[in-house]
Write a structure and sequence with these properties.
Largest sheet: 2 strands, antiparallel
Radius of gyration: 19 Å
Oligomer: single chain
Helix content: 40-55%
Number of helices: 2
Length: about 100
């Protein structure tokens, strides 16, 4: 089961518990948790899609079944990360 599926399972469990809740406050919290788990699942799907696209574009390898872990064709020590330890590019969502 991948990470997004686990998040969706958590969302389903929160929804099930919300239906059994004993108070309005409990129902509100569980509804919020359900929504949050769904958002995390969707963001995870988008992240994996971006990583797969980048890996294919760069020809570096493929995404394994584990979130964010790539199987690279060359050891990490051989990948050029810029001069003198500074990166010349910025990963998506990262600021310099």
């Amino acid at each position: 089961m991948d990470h997004a599926d686990r998040c969706r399972t958590q969302a389903d469990e929160c929804h099930r518990l919300m239906l059994l809740s004993q108070s309005g406050a409990e129902a509100t919290i569980l509804t919020s948790l359900t929504r949050s788990w769904k958002m995390i699942a969707n963001q995870t799907d988008r992240y994996v899609a971006i990583m797969k696209k980048e890996a294919a574009r760069k020809g570096q390898g493929r995404i394994e079944g584990h979130l964010g872990v790539r199987s690279l064709r060359q050891p990490a020590s051989l990948i050029d990360h810029g001069s003198m330890g500074t990166s010349t590019s910025t990963a998506p969502g990262k600021r310099r």
